[in-house]
Every structure is written in C-alpha cells, then in structure tokens.
Amino acid sequence: MESRRLGRSGLSISAIAYGNWLTHGGQVEEDAAHACVSAALDAGITTFDTADVYAGTRAEAVLGRALAGQRREGLELFTKVYWPTGPGHNDRGLGRKHLVESCHASLRRLQTDYVDLYQAHRYDPTVPLEETMTAFADLVRAGKVLYVGVSEWRADEIAAGAALARDLGIQLISNQPQYSMLWRVVEAEVVPTCEEEGISQIVWSPLAQGVLTGKYQPGQQPSPDSRGGHAEAGGSMRRFLRDDVLTRVQQLRPIADDLGLSMAQLAVAWVLQNRNVAAAIIGATRPEQVQDNAQAAGVRLDADVLARIDEVLGDVVERDPAKTARG
Asked: How far apart, in whole angstroms, are the C-alpha atoms of residue 19 and residue 282?
C-alpha cells in the first residue's frame, strides 16, 4: 500500500483510506462491517475515516469495535463534526460547546484517547471562525486531536481557516471534498488554494457512489439491493444515474480493460493522479470490494489515458466551482 504525506505535515497516511459513510451502522450488518475493516487492514490500509453523524453516531461505534485490539500507533483515525447529533440547539454546528463535546463523544465511541485528524464537516457561517479555530487549537493542545482538517469548504473559507490556524500555532492540513472523474468542482479554485496553503485533499466518493464501477446500466432501474436502489443511499447519487452519464461511463470499460484494471480500480487510480490528493476514501459492503479498490494504489495513468477519459466523459463532467459543498 502506497503512503503519502498529508499536507505540509509529518503525518503519512495510506493512499487508500477506508470510510464508513452509509455502511456501518446502517446499510450493512456489524459482522459484515467488521469483515470489511479486516479486509482493509489486510490490504495495508491504515487510514480510517468516519464522522459523528454517520448512522446517527452508530458508525463511529461500529468502527471502534472493529478496530479494537489493533495497534493504535499503526492507525490514522479521522472523524468529523458539524451536523446535528442530538435534539438540542447546541448539538450542531462549529461552536465551541458542540465541537468540544462532540470530540469527547467521538473518542468514547471510537475507543481511543485521540484522533489523528479532526475535521469540520462543513463551514458554519453562524459561528465566528475565530471561535471554531480556537476550539480546535485547544483540543490539539489537550492532546485529543493531532491535526485539523475541513470538509467541503470553499477556497476563500479554506484560506481564512489556514491563516487563523497559523496564528494559533496549529496545522490545518486537509480538505475532504467529493471528487471523481464525474465531479471535478474543486479543481478550479479549491485545489490551487490548498496547494498554496500546504493542504491536501482526502477525497470521498471517487467511484461517484458506485456509478463508476459500471454496474448501473442506462435504461435500467438500479437493483433494489444496490446503493442506487437503496432509498437513503440512492437519494444522494441521483445526479449520476442519468442515462447520458451512464452511457458515457460504459464507454470507459475498454480503457480499463486495456490497462488490466477493473472499472473501480480505474476510477480510484484516476483521483490519485492529482498531486494534491493524499488519499481516496473507499467504502464497501463486502470485503472483496475493499480488496479490488485497494489495488488501485500505486497505479500510474499516462497522459494519453487521462486524455482518453476526458474525451469519453465530455460534457457530463461537473466542473462548476460554485457547486462545492452541495454534494
């Protein structure tokens, strides 16, 4: 498994990270979740990403149990804070009270004393950025958090956060955006800003929530047992299930075949070609999906291959930077 440095920090992470959005505590049973985590470890994945809000806090607890007994120093555990985790008016957002309390709750569920990366899951315009970054800094100094990151922040928000982090003597080292062959909204503004600030991308949905595996066919309804056919999971991927998109995706198959890659491996390898991407987060409902995706680490795609992909996908690719954080 290839490892990469995260931002301008001393933290190395696995180029393939395992994430449990939509799966642990929800879409798959706990035994299956543990099997997928075991497969990730066997594949050399050391980086695990979750969030307090996933499956109503259950995902963190499942991951904590799945990793129990592993050598903590050999893992990089990432979680996030922002979305509501309870009924109270302070059970949400990036105010100091919620941020600190949510961190402590995440540590309990993950069965750890600290997280390697604590991420603001979205930007919170209702709270002064100084309050948010100062609370992050206090958690770092308390040893609860080693590094700070954000998720789906816009370029100007990232720049402002990075400046405050420097003033506070902490490191803002990552952004976690949606990024795939089909969803490239971070390329125009977010990535250049992050390169300037020494911040890496840890990208989610490199498979466009499964569409880039090629399993969804134009003119056909998604199988009820697939993510696209799942009531909750499928709702967030409708934009990718259009026939024009699915037709173009099927045209990627000869490219993958020529390279001896599965469609999923091609998609994961594609995001890893971006020099600002430190890791691609994969999710899975079966261990064999983890094993397949992990083989994309270290794959190099030549410029002519990247050009062929661009030509095939054409105008179905979303590039509008204004759509950052709408995914």
From this structure: 6
Amino acid at 47: T
Q: Tokens for 82, please give them.
A: 């922002």
Six token digits for residue 47: 């980086």
Question: Average per-residue pLDDT in the chain?
Answer: 91
Class of domain 3-207+274-299: alpha beta
Q: Are 85 and 102 in contact (CB under 8 A)?
A: yes
pLDDT in tens, 269-298: 999 999 999 999 998 888 999 999 999 999
Query: Given the DSSP bridges, would you call strands 3-5 and 12-14 parallel, antiparallel or unpaired?
Result: antiparallel
Biggest distance spanned by C-alpha atoms of the chain: 55
* Helix spans in the chain (H): 30-42, 58-67, 96-110, 129-141, 155-168, 190-197, 231-235, 243-250, 253-259, 263-272, 287-294, 303-313
Contact 82, 120 (CB under 8 A): yes
Planar angle of CA 22, 26, 27, nearest 5 degrees: 70
Assign 84 to helix, strand or coil.
coil
Handedness of CA 29, 34, 40, 45 (dihedral sign): positive
What region, left, alpha or beta, does residue 126 occupy, with left being phi > 0 and alpha being psi -120 to 50 degrees?
Answer: alpha
Judged by DSSP in three states, 286 sits in: coil
User: Number of H helices and number of E strands within the chain?
Assistant: 12, 10
Domain residue spans of the chain: 3-207+274-299
Please report how many Cα atoms fall inside a 13 Å half-sphere around the Cα of residue 63, on the Cβ side. 35
Q: Which residues are known catalytic residues?
A: 54
Distance of CA 245 to the CA centre of its chain: 22
Number of neighbours of residue 107 by Cβ within 10 angstroms: 20
Q: Model's pTM, two decimal places?
A: 0.91
